[in-house]
Specification:
Layout (H helix, E strand, L loop, with lengths): L19 E13 L3 E8 L2 E8 L3 H6 L7 E10 L14 E12 L16 H6 L1 H4 L3 H23 L3 E2 L17 E3 L7 E3 L5 H9 L4 E10 L10 E11 L3 H19 L4 E2 L6 E3 H7 L14 E2 L1 H4 L5 H8 L3 E7 L7 H13 L6 E6 L2 E3 L1 H4 L3 H11 L6 E7 L4 H15 L7 E2 L1 E5 L4 E3 L6 E3 L10 H7 L9 E6 L2 E8 L4 H10 L4 H15 L6 E4 L3 H8 L30 H6 L8 H4 L1
Parallel strand pairs: 3-5, 6-9, 11-18, 12-19
Antiparallel strand pairs: 1-2, 1-4, 2-3, 4-5, 7-8, 9-10, 10-24, 13-14, 14-17, 15-16, 15-17, 19-22, 20-21, 22-23, 23-24
Length: 594
């Protein structure tokens, strides 16, 4: 007989009754029924009930063993008595009648329980993550993650992609966040950067002639934590393809993404390819965001023209000054109490808005503060434009052209949730396309890249030479699922001359571009194929499939919100001798010195 187990804790069945067996695992729970001691023994594969008879040596040993101790039990498989069968367990028809037990590792008093569904503070869960990972829900999330990655890898290989690994120690790249820097001991005063994404390397793989590349790539960004973003590091399905148009990229990756979601959806609906394509400007108009949750049926309408020159002075003034007024319908709310509207107005002020105006459309006409100051024909025009009926209400987001649309999106989301309109049990996908190549930096007044700086502008060099930069669109696209951005991608700029000009418009000199991206520029000068790709986030895919509200729940060993590893004690100081070896000297702020 094997030293530790003949079966796993999820393997025994009624057909094994009468046979000897040996199991090893963690003591999940204990129940003392006088003459019998019942133990639920757990391992990675499942759970089996163990029975210890009073008076036996094994009973005396287990009487003092704490939960989560690791034991090895030898005994005989027996059928459970009728009425004691546990249908929730695959092994629930049998139990192991213990003859011998060996305590392999005795557990101390636990800082948190594994059995049960009790909630614990994140500080406890992250410090004792190795215990937290034993809990059923977290354990299942990690196995889901492993299954998703395995499925993605198989599907990408079947689609003709080759897996490569790109460097971790590299040069800084403008990906929109701060780099993590690594001092180069052999080159005093110089630093490597951990890759925010393998952007330049995957393009160079295409220049090198490999045609279709992918990897499950680790990425590192020194940025703040939020519910759908882990601080420090994350993983993405990084892929790139040569000789492709934007539609070729979509047609290739859609079956992979849809297939993975269908495989793990457990009955939930999944958008079938082709996914809807929504231009950026349309998304900002209809949904007030470039990450629309299509499960929400509400649509935003531009009603600036209906308020221009109207009797409602506040909105008329906004329209006259170049601002916009957006309307968000709220079906079936006309009969709601005044407190419903007051609470939404209070919420709007908490978001930094001046308030949230509205019109209630009743059978005998429009009502509310705005309606009292608005010409009836204009109110009717708004009703028709929004497609609402008597019994519905309409809320308004008004302000500057770059602010009001975003607030209208927040209102749409708020109403969708509060009114129970968000469809459940499905994954709604779409592409957001035609992003602007550039945007105006509000603080500096300078033109910046709005998305990926390595994207090909629509219209190529001619657009860069002849168009207002703020009107140039790029071959850039995002995959959105249920309001979560899974991926950013683009058809890449594969020509050195176009790349230099694109960066020049964003304030980089040719020398700057050569210094920062010389490796890729040099490669382009020796023949580069048109190419494009994307990089769906692994963590976010698993978060959606696991129906978890926070991305930490699907990461094996996550950092806390402050970017700290409470279990391993990172980040940590280093000895002065090590700093000297790296030619570094600390200049800490006063608070850190104290």
């Amino acid at each position: 007989m094997h030293a530790y187990r003949t079966h796993t804790c999820g393997a025994l069945r009624a057909s094994d009754a009468g046979q000897p067996a040996r199991l090893s695992g963690w003591v999940h729970s204990k129940r003392d029924h006088g003459g019998l001691l019942f133990i639920d023994l757990r391992d990675h594969f499942g759970m089996t009930q163990i029975v210890f008879a009073a008076g036996s040596a094994a009973f005396e040993t287990m009487d003092h063993v704490r939960p989560e101790s690791v034991i090895t039990v030898t005994g005989t498989v027996v059928l459970r008595e009728p009425g004691t069968v546990n249908p929730k367990l695959p092994s629930g028809e049998v139990e192991l009648r213990a003859a011998e037990v060996v305590v392999q590792s005795a557990a101390d008093v636990l800082p948190m329980q594994v059995a049960g569904e009790e909630k614990y503070p994140d500080e406890i869960r992250l410090k004792y993550r190795f215990i937290d990972l034993r809990r059923d829900r977290v354990h299942r999330n990690m196995m889901l993650r492993a299954g998703v990655i395995s499925s993605i890898r198989r599907r990408m290989i079947e689609a003709g992609f080759t897996e490569f690994q790109t460097p971790i120690l590299t040069a800084s790249s403008p990906e929109g966040a701060r780099d993590f820097l690594v001092p180069a001991r052999l080159h005093p005063g110089k630093f490597y950067a951990l890759p925010q994404a393998p952007q330049q390397f995957k393009q160079l793989i295409m220049v090198a002639g490999f045609d279709r590349y992918f990897q499950i790539a680790p990425c590192f960004r020194d940025e703040a934590s939020r519910a759908d973003r882990s601080p420090g590091e994350f993983y993405q399905l990084d892929f790139e393809m040569s000789y492709v148009t934007q539609e070729d990229v979509f047609a290739t990756i859609e079956p992979v993404i849809a297939g993975v979601f269908e495989e793990f959806a457990e009955g939930r609906g999944v958008t079938r390819p082709p996914f809807p394509r929504i231009p950026y400007e349309e998304a900002m108009l209809l949904y007030g965001t470039d990450k629309p949750d299509l499960r929400n049926p509400l649509r935003v309408t531009d009603v600036t023209a209906q308020f221009a020159g109207s009797g409602f002075g506040l909105f008329a003034k906004i329209a006259a000054s170049g601002g916009v007024v957006r309307a968000i319908p709220a079906p079936g709310t006309a009969a709601n109490p005044r407190s419903f509207f007051d609470k939404l107005n209070e919420w709007a002020r908490e978001q930094g808005a001046g308030g949230l105006g509205y019109i209630v459309f009743e059978a005998d006409g429009p009502k509310g503060p705005i309606a009292r100051n608005l010409e009836p024909e204009r109110a009717e025009a708004i009703r028709l434009a929004c497609g609402v009926q008597p019994g519905d209400s309409v809320f308004f987001a008004a302000g500057k052209r770059d602010e009001a649309p975003k607030f209208s999106g927040a209102v749409r989301t708020k109403l969708g949730h509060d009114l129970g309109l968000i469809g459940q049990g499905r994954f709604d996908f779409c592409w957001i396309t035609d992003f602007p190549m550039y945007e105006m930096n509000e603080e500096s007044g300078q033109i910046d890249f709005s998305h990926n700086p390595f994207s090909m502008p629509q219209g190529g060099m001619e657009a860069l030479l002849t168009q207002d930069p703020l009107t140039i669109k790029a071959f850039q696209y995002d995959i959105i699922c249920n309001g979560v951005e899974l991926s950013s991608g683009a058809i890449r700029n594969h020509r050195a001359d176009i790349m230099v000009k694109a960066f020049e418009i964003a304030g980089y000199s040719a020398d700057d571009v050569e210094a920062r991206f010389g490796g890729m520029l040099n490669a382009f000068r020796y023949g580069a194929p048109p190419h494009g790709g994307s990089a769906p986030g692994i963590d976010r895919i698993v978060m959606l499939l696991a129906d978890e509200p926070n991305i930490r729940e699907v990461i094996l060993f996550p950092l806390n919100q402050q970017g700290e590893d409470l279990m391993m004690g990172a980040p940590a100081g280093v000895p002065a001798a090590r700093l000297k070896e790296l030619s570094l000297k600390l200049d800490l702020p006063p608070k850190a010195k104290g």
